[in-house]
Amino acid sequence: MHDGCSPLMIISGLWAFSLLAGGQPSVLRSAVMFTCIVLGQNFARKTSIYNTLAFSAFILLCYNPYWLWDVGVPAFVLRRTEHYYFYEAGL
Hints:
Helix content is 71%, strand content 0%. It is an all-alpha fold. The protein is globular and about 40 Å long. The model has no long low-confidence stretch (mean pLDDT 83).
């Protein structure tokens, strides 16, 4: 990363905090998504936030396919997609 922190330190700290916070589903969703973002940026290639979001949703649904019918995961993906869409549009 640009500030001198290695991706391994960032991901380790993120997951340590996530588990320390009790591993609630909303915290784990955010941790998986941010882990995918950090790994994507570390490859020194241009990444699309939508591909990263889709990959994190795929990982979450591979872990527990029944989350597809839970309100949390689809709502999380929809909120993040809207957030990035409106951020790119400048609204």
